[in-house]
Amino acid sequence: MGYKIAVVGATGNVGREMLNILAEREFPIEEIAAVASPRSQGRKIDFGDSGKELKVQNIENFDFSGWDMALFAAGSGPTKIYAPKAAAAGCTVIDNSSLYRMDPDVPLIVPEVNPEAIDGYKVKNIIANPNCSTAQMMVALKPLHDAATIKRVVVSTYQSVSGAGKGGMDELFEQSRAIFVGDPKDNEVFTKQIAFNVIPHIDVFLDDGSTKEEWKMVVETKKILDPKIKVTATCVRVPVFVGHSESINLEFEKELSAEDAQKILREAPGIMLVDKREDEGYTTPVECVGDSATYISRVREDPTVENGLNIWCVSDNLRKGAALNAVQIAELLGRKHLKKG
Question: Which of 91, 132, 235, 313 is catalytic?
Answer without folding.
Answer: 132
